[in-house]
Amino acid sequence: xxxxxxxxxxxxxxxxxxxxxxxxxxxxxxxxxxxxxxxxxxxxxxxxxxxxxxxxxxxxxxxxxxxxxxxxxxxxxxxxxxxxxxxxxxxxxxxxxxxxxxxxxxxxxxxxxxxxxxxxxxxxxxxxxxxxxxxxxxxxxxxxxxxxxxxxxxxxxxxxxxxxxxxxxxxxxxxxxxxxxxxxxxxxxxxxxxxxxxxxxxxxxxxxxxxxxxxxxxxxxxxxxxxxxxxxxxxxxxxxxxxxxxxxxxxxxxxxxxxxxxxxxxxxxxxxxxxxxxxxxxxxxxxxxxxxxxxxxxxxxxxxxxxxxxxxxxxxxxxxxxxxxxxxxxxxxxxxxxxxxxxxxxxxxxxxxxxxxxxxxxxxxxxxxxxxxxxxxxxxxxxxxxxxxxxxxxxxxxxxxxxxxxxxxxxxxxxxxxxxxxxxxxxxxxxxxxxxxxxxxxxxxxxxxxxxxx
Length: 454
Ligand SMILES: [Zn+2]
Fold this sequence. Notes:
Urease, subunit C, domain 1, Amidohydro-rel, binds zinc ion, Amidohydrolase-related domain-containing protein, 15 helices, three-stranded parallel beta sheet, hydrolase activity, acting on carbon-nitrogen (but not peptide) bonds, Metal_Hydrolase, alpha/beta, single chain, nine-stranded mixed beta sheet
């Protein structure tokens, strides 16, 4: 990606930053393949203590060298003075549903709005999020977005996706993105067709509650549940489950699940937390979704913060202020979640205290929501140093991509976030974004309203 227009654009952006007074020096007329960030405080994503005065050398798309002191810059390297700055891996949101795949049409039906999805993906980058896991969507839409992202067709965080979610006939999620399975034998061809699309992590629904306030929903038999997981695994695909109660979550462990797409939706026993920890099954935290819905009724002003403006499409933001806010209030969801949120916080803290691998996930579709999630996790009592790992490496572990992503370690892909403030001192520092890199290349931070105009 050096000789095409993309590299040239990246250089222009760098030059702009330099003119804006940032202490950066770029050499050469084409985009450099080496990048040296020096004298920076390194927060590597593993949960290790910050390392001040460090240098990180990126060669091509990977981290080539990390030193506690200085590194000699290779000829032609792009150099960044990290004095006063903090270098982290790019943030990972381990639970989103990308907007645009299933837009409601007036008078019924849905349509795909790809430009909206592309703006929203830019919004994630604007918020420092360099990887997302789409936990269920219109499969055609999200797999196309994933292919386009991998082909570099537009600026985007890395997209990992489930596509269709697997549920029992008539079960939770059946009517939305569901692929229904009554038993593995009967539905083998259907399952194989889904696995052939290479979901990065297969999401399975196992929730007898049904949707809020609706009738109890059917779930798989134990045998079917285990059979689906076995078939996914034999296709090289790990699995994650949406389960609501402790008993459903325990049954999911018995069935062989690799991850939890949510924590249990009420208080949990220590015994359960210990079991999840011992099995090393990661849990996506997803506090932001309920907090967003609960808070929009009384305090919708959070929508006006710079991060929301930088990461939510203007028309979608207006919907949140108006029709969506009304919907959340009228449906009773806002009131219900307001009661529930303190219990979720307790459950998360108990999981953390028992050593469970937590990964920050929002169940939303905006970069700003991940910052809300991190704030909620801090408020739930998670110390800020382990939170740096929950925001980064643990997401990669959840996605089974930790060999390449999630931490600043030699040989890994250079998805980086440079901050102007210390996130181990103040959780708000995640919003003090100086620069974002994906594959070792600087990402242009673009206001979304300029993208909407055309
Ligand atoms: Zn979800």
